[in-house]
Design a protein that fits this description.
By secondary structure, the chain is an alpha+beta fold. The protein is built from four helices and 13 strands. It has helices at 48-57, 68-91, 139-148, 158-172; strands at residues 3-9, 12-17, 20-21, 27-28, 34-37, 40-46, 95-97, 100-102, 106-112, 115-120, 125-127, 132-136, 181-186. Helix 1 (48-57) crosses helix 2 and helix 3 packs across helix 4 (158-172).
C-alpha cells in the first residue's frame, strides 16, 4: 500500500511518494516507489512486483516531446503490460475480494510532458483536470490535502505541497509512511510537424 502524488507545475511535473511497505511488516523500503525514465517518471501503488519487473524487463522509449497521451499509450503501456503479465505468471497470485478472484492490482502515476497521468492495471490512462492526482491507499487523503492547499502559500512550492499531502495521508492511513521521496520531470518542448 502506498501514496503517490503528482502535481503539474509551470516547469514540468512533480512526483512524490512514501516508502512504507506493509507486507510482511511496516518498514521503509530500501528502494523508492518512483522510477525515473528518460524524459518521464512513474510512481507505483499496489503490487510492488510490477514496479520491479517494469524496471528490469523493458526498455521504455524516451519521451522526446511528442503528445504525452500518445507516448503513454504507445511507449509506456506496452512495457507495463509485459511487466503485469510476467508478474501474473511468476507469482500466480490473485487478489480475493468478496470470495471472488481478481487480477493483480497495480496503478501508477506518470509524469510526462508537464502532465500527470494515472494508469491502472487495465492500461487505461487518465489525466486529472485538477493539475494534480494521487494513487494508492492514501490517495483520497492526499487529494483532499492537495485541494486544501490550493490558493495558499504552500501551492507555490510543489515539493512542500506534495510532502504535506503525503504527510496527511500518512496521518490518516496506517499503510502510508516512511521517508518521502520525490522527482521533478522538466517539461519537454513539443515536437511539431511542419505544414
Amino acid at each position: 500500500m502506498t501514496c503517490i502524488v503528482g502535481i503539474e507545475t509551470p516547469t514540468g511535473a512533480l512526483l512524490a511518494g512514501d516508502t512504507r511497505v506493509v507486507w510482511p511488516n511496516r518498514h521503509a523500503a530500501i528502494d523508492t516507489k518512483l522510477m525515473e525514465m528518460r524524459g518521464a517518471a512513474a510512481g507505483f501503488a499496489g503490487d510492488a512486483r510490477v514496479d520491479q519487473l517494469l524496471k528490469i524487463l523493458g526498455e521504455i522509449a524516451p519521451y522526446k516531446g511528442e503528445d504525452p497521451e500518445r507516448w503513454i499509450v504507445t511507449c509506456f503501456c506496452p512495457v507495463l503490460e509485459v511487466a503485469l503479465e510476467a508478474c501474473k505468471k511468476q507469482t500466480k497470485i490473485l487478489v480475493v475480494k468478496d470470495d471472488e478472484a481478481w487480477p493483480i492490482e497495480s496503478v501508477c502515476l506518470v509524469a510526462v510532458g508537464g502532465q500527470i497521468w494515472s494508469v491502472d492495471e487495465t492500461l487505461y490512462a487518465m489525466r486529472s483536470r485538477d493539475g494534480y492526482d494521487a494513487v494508492g491507499s492514501g490517495a483520497e487523503y492526499a487529494i483532499g490535502a492537495l485541494y486544501a492547499t490550493k490558493a495558499t502559500d504552500v501551492e507555490s512550492d510543489p515539493v512542500k505541497r506534495a510532502h504535506v499531502a503525503i504527510e496527511a495521508a500518512a496521518w490518516a492511513c496506517p499503510t502510508v509512511g516512511g521517508p518521502i521521496t520525490h522527482t521533478h520531470v522538466p517539461r519537454v518542448p513539443k515536437t511539431g510537424r511542419k505544414k
